[in-house]
Records
---
Amino acid sequence: KRSINTLKLIMNTMRIKSTFTKAWQLNERHYGALTGLNKDEMKKKLGEKKIHEFRRSWDLRPNPLNRNNPYHPINIQIYKGLKKEDIPDTESLKDTFERVVNYYKKNIEEKINHSKNVLISAHGNSIRSLCKFLFNLNEKQITKLEIPTGNPLLIEFSKNGKITRCKYLDEDRAQDLIIF
């Protein structure tokens, strides 16, 4: 809901009257059994070191979330049209990367290659995953990439799909991109 509301605010501010696509594949990483807990509750349950490992590792998944849990996506209305086997019980950043990049390649890349403007409003780990792909970051670099909340990243592409320029629009709150 947050990223959809953000997108609506951006479109309204820019007076864009276009429709948009809701794509579950761009949703936040599924934290499995940690879903529904805030950071403090997670730290009490597993310890700060383990939570940091889950949040920053490439291929470590938390324990799966029980499918009877009301927080499991199969029990949430917006996922009702999906095949249950497509909905994960838990994800690593690597899993999120695969989901996001597959969607990007099938639904977004061609638009960019045809010089279309694309606005993506998503969540931290899905944006980090997309940046890993676009900027060809390795597993160590992706653990260091910070995505500032609410600071749009403008990426310009050449006609052959190569990145020619990128910058955060609010330079005072910009993070190091570690790529340029």
---
Amino acid sequence: MSGLVHHYGLIALFLIVMLESGGIPLPGETALVAAGVFASSGDLNIAAVIAVAAAAAIIGDNLGYWVGRTGGRRALERSPRLSSWSARVLPWSEAFFHRHGAKTIFIGRFFSILRVTAAWMAGVSHMRWWRFFAWNAAGGICWALLVGLVAYFAGHAAADAISRYGLIGGVAIVVLAGAGLLGYRLWKKRLLRAEGETS
């Protein structure tokens, strides 16, 4: 995945993130991490990486939403194998998205399974589009900013942590490392100040 982003740059990033957001299980977050690391090396512009990833996430999710709203629901209701299951599940899904749709769409951007499924499930459940769009845009922008900047500032260490422990674990490791470094610097400053006062 990083090879695609390295060779084709922002076009590859846009396509991978958009297709993942639209419902095709591709490693969009890995592509964004790779782009952020390449930006830290000077191969890409980090502002462009964040803007492209956010736009791709928003566009892809909206495509997934409309596929779910138009064709997905019809396919579930007309399929002989799925019609009885959809008759039981769709009312529950509609009630869930009515109550918790905004949170699900925003938070779903940060979890790989929900990143692929949340948009078309919102469409199948007939979540109001303007509400979906607002929370989807907020989630896409926050996700692109957070992942892009962590990968940019922490470079390969962040990429390894995110690929090994996921976004939340990777960010937690980077934050803990930063807090440890800050604590060490404050302790060293206090120690130097105490030595200056005693001398």
